Amino acid sequence: MIERILPAEAVAEESLGSPPAPAGDFLHPEEAAVVARAVPKRKEEFAAVRACARTALGRLGFPPVPLVPNRRGAPQWPSGVVGSMTHCDGYRAAVVARSGALASIGIDAEPNGPLPDGVLDVVSLPGERARIRSLAALRPGVHWDRLLFSAKESVFKTWYPLTGQELDFEEAELAFEEAEPDVDPGAGTFSARLLVPGPVVGGVRLGGFTGRWAVGSGFVLTAIALPAAVPASAPATVPDPRGEPPAPVSGSAASPA
To answer: Where is this region: Disordered (predicted)?
Structure first.
């Protein structure tokens, strides 16, 4: 499913359903130490998503290696690789690419159901809530609050390897567009306008990211695949989803979240 929202440079591996019970038996010792005290379900998901990642790395030409998370939980990929992992009940996926092709990747999967009460107010800005209310009236089959949350997770997973800094939910503002129904039903694009100074990629300070989303098989999926080289003609900012002029590009370093 996730391949439909990724570029050709990215290699994806996914699995649906319950992970195999003995999945933890295939962890590297360094990985097993990370989840040594975790409940069985956590160990199985941790191992199953890493099995996806090692398969994807193999398709890219890399040998199996331990994929140990750092202090923020982000997997530490082999030199020359960028990637991202995600898992929720019934779904797990990993996406990798050579760092010469993509600068960063962020993916996320969530069940296509409503967020728990109170969560939307924590993870969104007022303008975002107004926009997803309008979208929900047009497409009630998509849980736009959950899609918004997923897209913000993808934004963070793209941002963090480039900056090493946290990014709060209110420091990026999102807007969504649907694809034409006869072109790619149940899919579309989104833009994320960074409200703090963005990372520098290819000598260009970015004002935001663009990504793609899809809904299917009971899940919402989001992905950002950031090219390693930003075209010289590309703007250093993304459009303001509220219709206001883009914010000026800052010359300062990205601020901690």
So the answer is: 233-257
